[in-house]
Amino acid sequence: AEGRGESVWLAWFLRASLDAFVPHAAARGDRARVERWQGHALQLATALDAEGWDGRWYRRAFYDDGTAIGSNGDAECRIDAIAQSWSVIAGGGDPARAAQAMESLEAELVRPADGLALLFTPPFDRSARDPGYIKAYPPGLRENGGQYTHAAAWTVIALARQGKGDAAHALFSILSPVSHSSTRAGVERYKVEPYVVAADIYSVAPHVGRGGWTWYTGAAGWLYQAGLEWILGVRVEGALLRLVPCLPRTWPSAEVTLRYRTAVYRITLLNPDGVSGGVRELHVDGKELAPTTATVALRDDALTHTIDVVLGHRTVPEAPG
């Protein structure tokens, strides 16, 4: 309210944004911006690990007076999902802490039995402090301690970035609207359309599992990106296709059809060893390519191409003698 509050998750987001913009400034020869942005990114990383860390996870934010939100001793909003997910997505912090933060998130915020992934817990209710408009929602509804699907999709991406294919897919399945309507009881509980992503799902009785806003949410786009680019690992970067799959180990294969301008690419991901990631072999139109970069140059040639990817880690033969 007084303009002195600070956000931990937004610091991670700013860190990621600075890192993304640095190459563009460098390509323009703008050394002043490169140095300023890199310097600020390092300062953010230092501050995040010094002030943002709470022992087992990252705090969410600070009030005007410097009191933390999202700390282990808090009666409300003890742990928040976004700060943990973005510690992995942004990078630049302590990897061991990011790993611990994600373990805490999975243990504290993912409720498989209820089919929910909470934004934070416990909800704001009786605290004398005012975190803003979020507290105007009843406990367990929308951002106030319910499932906020936008944030949960970021958690899927963070899990995939960690190489946890099983966990990423399990959470993706929880978030899929189809999973909420697979039984008559589920339909009656969910109440909203099973063919669109709901922005939020309630987490407190008697409305546990009830869907909230549908149709307008940006979570749908993020969930699509999480599934396509991070679980299946199919990413288009300009005229380059990067293949970084992170599948559940039980999947023997997966297929993706990609349209690139006038061309069509039929991509098959083969998982004979039951692993989650790594590219052991890469074939394009029957020709084997070096799998080290796992990239393919895309062509706008009105043809149909085949890409076969074998998951696993390529073993390098020992030198003779």
Explained architecture:
The structure is a single chain. The N and C termini lie far apart (71 Å). The chain is an alpha+beta fold and 321 residues long. The strands form six sheets. A five-stranded mixed sheet has the order 12-13-17-14-15, with no helix packed on it. A three-stranded antiparallel sheet has the order 1-2-3. A three-stranded antiparallel sheet has the order 10-11-16. Mean pLDDT is 94; it is low at 316-321. Helix 1 (8-27) runs antiparallel to helix 2 (31-52) and helix 3 (81-90) runs antiparallel to helix 4 (95-109). The chain is built from eight helices and 17 strands. Helices cover 35% and strands 19% of the residues.
Helix and strand composition category: alpha+beta
Helix content: 25-40%
- What's the helix-strand series? EHHEEEHHEEEEHHHEHEEEEEEEE
DSSP summary, beta strand count: 17
User: What's the mean pLDDT score?
Assistant: 94
Distance separating the two termini: 71 Å
Parts with pLDDT < 50 across at least 5 consecutive residues: 316-321
> What Rg is obtained from the alpha carbons, in whole angstroms?
22 Å
Strand composition percent: 15-25%
Basic shape? globular
Largest β sheet strand count, sense and barrel closure: 5 strands, mixed
> Strand arrangement, largest sheet?
12-13-17-14-15
Number of helices: 8
